[in-house]
Design brief:
By secondary structure, the chain is mostly helical. 52% of the residues lie in helices and 0% in strands. This is MHD1 domain-containing protein.
């Protein structure tokens, strides 16, 4: 921890990613110094492949068994009907029941966002919603559902969406009563489609390889339960995936190749985390795969037509997104941490001009601080430390020489950056530091020490630059 707060050398903070021109447009910015704190995947799954995969999970967790459009049930109706949308109507699990009274809520009737209010963000209700710009003829169509909005936000075309829903219907018809978390979705979808279900062979090949790479990432490279080297199912799955890169598997039927794939996948996915038997399958809940997938879902909360604005329907969409937790192994604490990173990363990636995003990230970080005090889970603590260290490192590059970073055009950002940096430092020191807990709390004032360091470092930098000019 001492290394985290050591004095930086003079001139460490550069102008390139914070200077703002007089017309409010960023002169230059870069996110190269902001790597993902969640870690990198060990295979070459692209963002678009991850996005399509998690959209399949999202639809599978939220759709009703009758094949109706994805809908939203307001909180008032949920109080009267303790049932929620799901994959199957025959399951006794609360996460897999469905309501026939689902309301197709129009985007135009969305109430003021409670989530935005909690984040301290302004409403952008005067802007056009992505759902209103689907096509020139959208006025003649029925009101757009929240599910349709999510399809647009995740950049999934209608043909792909239709295929996904068709596949889920086929799975539901053949496996009545099975919960979505008791299936390995990529495996089941491979069983449902063959090459003739795609417009061309190239798209089919890309689809098959994506599903196999997802199985590889979730079951072999980033499993939630470690794999023994002698595991025969893991060895078979590796061989099948390598073989498919040379000759595709014949999918869409219950043939020998699909049976071989299933016999390798299911023993790996069915392994228990706690040693007790369970019907749940674990194929997308290992770190960092699950966090990368969940990040894709949260990024869909940003307006498709204005990348710095969050959609007005965030409350409804977030409620549906949380239904994927059963597959991705997420919880409220991981959600709070991931959401903080997504807000912060979007601020940096979009030119560092939208103070609303930085303010929202800081407010969300307050929830993370509460979580950090409430748990000592080692996995969570590792992700927490990585995320906050990345945020703090970025902030300190601006604050340790703030005379060089800020001017009259962007000085309004300084308060938010100081607050974010100090908040991240306090969590790291007070809740993640054994050294801090060994000392008397009053002996360490993290906020005061950080501010003092920023001032002293910036003054030294300013004097060094003045001396060099003279």
């Amino acid at each position: 921890m001492a290394q985290l707060f050591r004095d930086r050398i003079l001139g460490e903070s550069k102008r390139e990613s914070m200077r703002i021109s007089t017309n409010g447009v960023a002169k230059s910015f870069s996110i190269r110094d902001l790597p993902s704190p969640f870690g990198e995947l060990e295979n070459d799954l692209s963002d678009s492949e991850l996005r399509e995969t998690v959209y399949e999970i999202f639809v599978g967790c939220c759709r009703s068994s009758g094949g109706k459009p994805l809908t939203y049930i307001p909180q008032s109706e949920k109080n009267n009907h303790e049932r929620s949308p799901s994959f199957s109507s025959n399951s006794s699990s609360s996460s897999s029941n469905f309501s026939s009274l689902s309301l197709q809520r129009s985007l135009t009737s969305t109430a003021a966002s409670k989530v935005k209010k909690a984040l301290g963000m302004r409403s952008n209700s005067n802007k056009k919603s992505p759902g209103k710009e689907i096509s020139p003829t959208s006025k003649s169509k029925k009101p757009v559902t929240v599910g349709e909005l999510m399809r647009i936000q995740m950049r999934v075309n209608e043909a792909t969406d239709s295929r996904i829903r068709r596949g889920l219907l086929r799975i539901a018809a053949g496996q009545l009563g099975r919960r979505i978390d008791s299936m390995v979705l990529p495996l089941e979808l491979l069983q449902q489609f063959k090459s003739t279900d795609f417009p061309d062979q190239q798209e089919y090949e890309a689809w098959q390889m994506r599903n196999l790479k997802v199985l590889e990432a979730g079951l072999l490279l980033h499993p939630i339960v470690p794999i023994e080297k002698s595991n025969s199912a893991a060895q078979r799955l590796r061989q099948i995936i390598r073989g498919a890169s040379e000759k595709l598997i014949e999918t869409g039927k219950n043939n020998e190749s699909m049976q071989s794939l299933r016999s390798a996948v299911m023993p790996l996915a069915s392994r228990s985390i706690d040693g007790f038997g369970s019907d749940a399958c674990h194929w997308a809940d290992g770190f960092p795969l699950n966090l990368r997938l969940y990040q894709m879902l949260l990024e869909a909360l940003f307006d498709a037509y204005d990348e710095t604005s969050i959609i007005e329907e965030i409350d409804e969409v977030l409620e549906l997104i949380k239904k994927t937790w059963v597959i991705l192994g997420m919880n409220q604490m991981l959600h709070n941490l991931c959401f903080t990173w997504v807000l912060f990363h979007r601020f940096v990636a979009t030119g560092q001009t939208e103070n609303d995003l930085l303010f929202a990230a800081d407010n969300q970080l307050a929830e993370v601080a509460k979580d950090a005090k409430a748990t000592k889970d080692p996995v969570y603590s590792k992700i927490l430390s990585s995320t906050l260290s990345s945020i703090l490192g970025w902030a300190e590059k601006r604050l340790l020489a703030y005379h060089d970073t800020f001017d009259r055009d962007n000085v309004d950002l300084m308060q938010s950056i100081v607050s974010l940096g100090v908040s991240a430092a306090k969590i790291l020191v007070e809740d993640n530091s054994h050294e801090y807990r060994r000392r008397r709390k009053e002996e360490v004032d993290v906020a005061r020490n950080r501010i003092d360091t920023y001032i002293r470092s910036s003054v030294r930098t300013a004097f060094a630059q003045a001396s060099y000019i003279c």
